[in-house]
């Protein structure tokens, strides 16, 4: 690798013409570049190749055309997430998310996606090396890569590259001056709706540690049964895409009918703009993207509960 200090937004904007030439006219491309994006240190050619690889994979999953979203953001990976992913170090990262509206993948395919020569494409249509090469580049750059996908709902691949600190070691000053973490009142009850057992367990653990009472459901029908009971629920914290025939948005609508004024916070592994622009969520709703940190979830839940 030939690492250079990069402005990811400039690199992504510079690739726009190449992506339009490479992808079919039936695919709309949108780039959403975060303001104040941190710099990273990485090989620009390798990064461009990685983004192009992911865009081509996205194209191949959108057989009848669709929408490709490339989104950048400053991200923080905390100790809780790092503890569950042995290869990740906690710290500050720049994330690049490539989202499509394609056919999506089941969990078994996602689990094997980074294996060399593994491909779901027809013989002669792909070597299966694309994702494993992207994975290799990200690992060599000290980063992390995560796939979120649901069959029929599209895919987001998110690359995390470490923030370039310019040789300044440590962020102790930032930690010392961090604001206090907002907590619950011990009476407030949150309903967590999440089909991924590990993510649900982490969310429940964080919320209980913050002082909230928590009830949990793995799908929409289970959540509605809890909402039908005569018990206090102040906030529904739900994944956007769920099994069981009900989406997070549909659960929120039914929760509002059963309990007018109930607060709702959505979560998703898909990139924020992709999930809104693909029509799965309306603008203006409260949303936190996975993986969220302890501090981010604490602040977001408190904001939603305190909103008049």
Give structural attributes.
single chain; 308 residues; alpha/beta; five-stranded mixed β-sheet; five-stranded parallel β-sheet; 12 helices; globular
Task: Give me a quick take on this structure.
By secondary structure, the protein is of the alpha/beta class. Helices cover 36% and strands 24% of the residues.
Task: Write down the secondary-structure element order.
Answer: EHHEEHEHEHHEEHEHEHEHEHEH
What profile does the largest beta sheet have?
5 strands, mixed
Assembly of the depicted chains? single chain
Round the Cα radius of gyration to an integer and report it: 20 Å
What's the total helix number? 12
Q: Helix proportion of residues, in percent? A: 25-40%
Choose one word for the global shape: globular
**Adjacency order of strands in the biggest sheet:** 2-4-5-7-6
Calculate the terminal CA-CA distance, rounded to whole Å: 52 Å
Poorly predicted runs of 5 or more residues: 122-129, 168-176
DSSP strand tally: 12
Class by helix and strand content? alpha/beta
Give the averaged pLDDT, no decimals. 86
